[in-house]
Amino acid sequence: LFSKFVVTKAVYDNTSTTAARFLLYDVFMIYGVPSEIITDNGRHFTSSLYKSLLKLADCCPAKTTPYNPQANGQCERHNATLVPNLVALSNHSRSRWDENLLPTTFNYNATQHASTSYTPFELMFARAPRFIADLASDLIIPTDVQHNHDTMKQFIEHVKIAARHNTLKHQHIAKQRYDRNRDSSSNKFSSKFIGPYIIINKLTDKTYMVQHTTTDHRAQVTVQDLRSIN
Q: Where in the chain is the domain with CATH 3.30.420.10?
């Protein structure tokens, strides 16, 4: 989430086996095991095979609330950026889009992100990406490994602080823009809340399980769906 770095792969299907193999061979064995993975409630993410892999890897699964794409907004924004670029690059041969997936992904990871002011590649690997045009002019020079390691640690800490500051600044600007354009007036056609419900379980900081006070109906909701009646 911090780096905005994207990993993609063209697959034949979206079965649980395919999802598990992608996670194991294209994520865990290359970048290491994350502490948590956020997914929707697709069957390939709720299968026993997928759950067993995460349990074996000691990786905590987190599920978004159904019909609430904002809960995994960063993934939605990645798709909104990558898909149009992939379509444009594959314009002359739509059936061969898979051949353009990696170049499109690399281009995204090597492009400066508005909210962090760094490229995802820089935040992920603590260095700028090298391009094919750069290779001809590069010279192989012996380096001090320990010095490079210390320098990289300092760079990563500096970048984390700067990226966090830029992200908060970007979020503040976006909120101001939203507040200016929001129509806070209500009318008879405005959506109404239903209830009353009581909270029976806190799933995450922003997700709750609620139950109707006069029926057995239960639902998983987010904090923006709740209003106090007291």
A: 16-131
Neighbours of 39 (CB within 10 A): 17
State how far Cα 51 lies from the chain centre. 19
- Homologous superfamily of domain range 16-131: Ribonuclease H-like superfamily/Ribonuclease H (3.30.420.10)
Please tell me the predicted confidence (pLDDT) of residue 57. 94
The answer to whether the CB of 71 falls within 8 A of the CB of 63 is no
Successive 10-residue mean pLDDT values, the chain, 230 residues: 87 93 95 92 91 94 76 80 84 81 90 84 86 59 55 65 66 65 48 76 85 84 79
CA distances from 165 to 95, 118, 171, 176 (A): 42, 12, 10, 17
DSSP H helical segments within the chain, as ranges? 16-21, 29-31, 43-46, 48-56, 73-89, 101-109, 120-125, 132-135, 145-181
CB within 8 Å of 57: residues ≥ 6 apart: 28, 33
> b or e along 119-154 (b: 16 or more beta carbons within 10 Å of the residue's beta carbon)?
bbbbbbebeeeeeeeeeeeeeeeeeeeeeeeeeeee
Cβ-contact 61, 215 below 8 angstroms: no
**Which residue type does 50 have?**
Y
CB atoms inside a 10 Å sphere around CB 76: 12
Predicted pLDDT at 197: 84
